[in-house]
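COMPLEX REQUEST
Ligand: zinc ion
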Amino acid sequence: MSSLSQSRCFQHVSREAVARCPDCERFYCRECVTEHDGRMICRPCLDGILEAAPKAQSGWVKAARGWFMAGLGFFLAVYAFYLVGKILLGIPSQFHNGVFLD
Ligand SMILES: [Zn+2]
Ligand SMILES: [Zn+2]
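STATUS: Structure written out below.
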């Protein structure tokens, strides 16, 4: 079992490791790790985490998407209402004109 004091940095062989990355489980020196979410994580893993995390969108993009989705929902609701109305309007006339006279 390897302990921290005996381990060397994965990237700097001459340096003693001070932390072990919880993600890749390699040992790193103080320079190679960064604190993230309360744990010491190596740079490559941190980059991976930051890249995997949803990118913070600028406010207007979010707002535009929100408005687009709201508009789309409103349009669909109106269209559904229109279809239902058309069907409801169509039923009585079909009933009354059920007998084709011509
Ligand atoms: Zn790592
Ligand atoms: Zn290092």
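REMARKS: Residues 11 and 28 are 7 Å apart (CA to CA). The first strand starts at residue 19 and ends at 20.
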